[in-house]
């Protein structure tokens, strides 16, 4: 069965081996199992659709070697959000190439997606926040105007004011957020592309003490040592 992207749906990781597909990406397999979200009315390229916007769940192949993935995965299931309107998602076990967002989107889009995840992935989980994250993601990926506005431009949302308002607030805050994660996309020539939502990798190095702090600590220790000798 071929599910339209506007019905949301996604596919995710079950890795087996490296290949030459999509810049030597990993080839992974996954089986779509369901979605948690809300129904919304959207307009894309002047075409109106009623869609299910939300978080999609996928099972991995039982024999998947999780150690070859570039991030940690707990259990044998993963979550994803749809990023492609122009193609349906194939149900059943499908093979996808796993690539970084920078290989699929422009630098501006990739950075905005990483900032969106950094700031708001902790609050995603209920139907409204799932729908809001999906709407914000679709806006970043499909809007062609110079600003993100869910009520005007190439991609618009005309229903479900709660999720739309939440997504609009998130989009308005992105410029002030510093990305802390590297994100990945599942690509397939015959099935819609998906943003990996679970198991992403932290992109920020572990903080180290500033040189001035280390210097003050060293001087204090030296002063205590001299007091003990006197």
UniProtKB/TrEMBL annotation:
InterPro entries linked to this entry: Ice-binding_C, TM_Gly-Cys-Arg_CS
Signal peptide per UniProt: 1-24
Ranges for domain Ice-binding protein C-terminal: 207-229
Keywords assigned: Signal
Entry's transmembrane regions: none
Record-given protein name: PEP-CTERM protein-sorting domain-containing protein/Myxococcales GC_trans_RRR domain-containing protein/MYXO-CTERM domain-containing protein
Organism (species): Alkalimonas amylolytica
């Amino acid at each position: 069965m071929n599910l339209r992207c506007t019905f949301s749906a996604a596919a995710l990781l079950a890795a087996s081996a490296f290949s030459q597909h999509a810049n030597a990406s990993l080839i992974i397999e996954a089986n779509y199992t369901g979605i948690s979200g809300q129904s919304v009315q959207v307009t894309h390229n002047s075409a109106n659709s009623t869609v299910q916007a939300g978080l999609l769940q996928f099972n991995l192949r039982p024999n998947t070697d999780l150690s070859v993935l570039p991030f940690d995965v707990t259990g044998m299931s993963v979550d994803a959000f749809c990023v492609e309107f122009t193609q349906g998602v194939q149900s059943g076990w499908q093979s996808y190439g796993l690539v970084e967002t920078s290989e699929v989107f422009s630098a501006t889009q990739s950075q905005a997606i990483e900032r969106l995840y950094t700031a708001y992935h902790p609050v995603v989980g209920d139907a409204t926040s799932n729908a809001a994250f999906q709407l914000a993601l679709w806006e970043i990926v499909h809007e062609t105007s110079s600003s993100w506005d869910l009520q005007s431009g190439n991609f618009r949302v005309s229903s479900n004011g709660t999720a739309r308002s939440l997504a609009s607030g998130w989009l308005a805050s992105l410029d002030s957020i510093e990305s802390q994660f590297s994100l990945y996309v599942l690509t397939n020539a015959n099935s819609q592309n998906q943003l990996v939502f679970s198991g992403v990798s932290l992109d920020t190095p572990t903080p180290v003490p500033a040189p001035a702090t280390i210097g003050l600590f060293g001087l204090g220790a030296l002063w205590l040592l001299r007091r003990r000798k006197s």
